[in-house]
Specification:
binds adenosine-5'-diphosphate, 10 strands, single chain, about 230 residues, 6-stranded mixed sheet, binds magnesium ion
């Protein structure tokens, strides 16, 4: 029977699905059956030591590395897209925060965030407005200083705003707190894991920092090419 109730829950929207990923680099098997699904609103931390394949997993979600198996972002299979379609899909649906260095140091935070929107083809006036609102919501002080002169914490808040400017359904973060001191590390981690509660997206963070991972809804460990779920709560 069809449930016609107007209060029926909306079907969960998958932001990212990895299905049976296998990938080798040289003679090393990096992924040996990786499965993961994140719906809008979810946050997952992937932990693993250096060299375990965390950044490569992010590259798979971005469609930059093509493993065996299925990678779906915002309900579309990246493996069925042309290179050009993948690039377009990436800029429409994915935002990324790296450890450091992806912001242009000479530009102001507003210019850095707006630039990401303009490069994706958004209207100039709307993009500046969105950028300004995002920076405000993420607690970046309004000033016209070059991004390079800001504190590490302010720069990472700017990087989060930049990743959100195109309203992605998937936010990826690769060691987002790796370059910060303890105080900024905690603040940026809290801000980041708050994102899927404030904006309609899913968050995948890869980190080797257990304190950062503890803030995620779920933590998985990349061990011998597979994701092992950590039983916590
Ligand atoms: P992590 O982010 O967990 O430190 P990476 O995903 O960066 O791990 O790398 C996993 C392994 O794959 C490492 O041993 C790394 O040296 C190797 N690797 C990653 N990318 C390449 C590449 N393009 N060519 C050769 N080896 C690579
Ligand atoms: Mg890495």
């Amino acid at each position: 029977m069809v449930n016609a109730s107007p209060h029926a829950p909306a079907p969960e929207r998958a932001a990212l699905e990895f299905g049976a990923l296998r990938h080798r680099i040289g003679d090393r098997i990096l992924f040996d059956g990786v499965d993961l699904r994140l719906n809008i609103g979810d946050s997952v931390a992937v932990m693993g030591p250096s060299g375990s394949g965390k950044s490569t997993l992010i590259s798979c979600a971005l469609g930059l590395v093509k493993p065996e198996g299925v990678v779906r972002v915002a309900n579309s299979d990246l493996g069925r897209m042309s290179r050009r379609e993948r690039t377009r899909h990436r800029s429409r649906h994915i935002g990324v925060v790296f450890q450091f260095g992806e912001l242009l140091p000479e530009l102001t935070p507003l210019e850095n965030v707006a630039l990401a929107g303009l490069l994706a083809g958004a209207d100039r006036k709307k993009t500046y407005k969105t950028a300004s609102e995002l920076l405000g919501s993420l607690g970046v002080p309004r000033h016209n200083r070059a991004t390079g002169t800001l504190s590490g914490g302010e720069r990472q808040r700017t990087a989060v705003a930049r990743a959100l400017v195109n309203r992605p359904s998937l936010l990826l973060a690769d060691e987002p707190t790796g370059a910060l001191d303890d105080t900024n590390r905690a603040a940026v981690a809290e801000l980041l894991f708050d994102v899927p509660r404030r904006w309609p997206c899913a968050l995948l963070v890869v980190t080797h920092d257990a304190q950062v991972a503890a803030l995620a809804d779920d933590t998985v460990h990349l061990v011998d090419g597979r994701l092992i779920r950590q039983e916590t709560r």
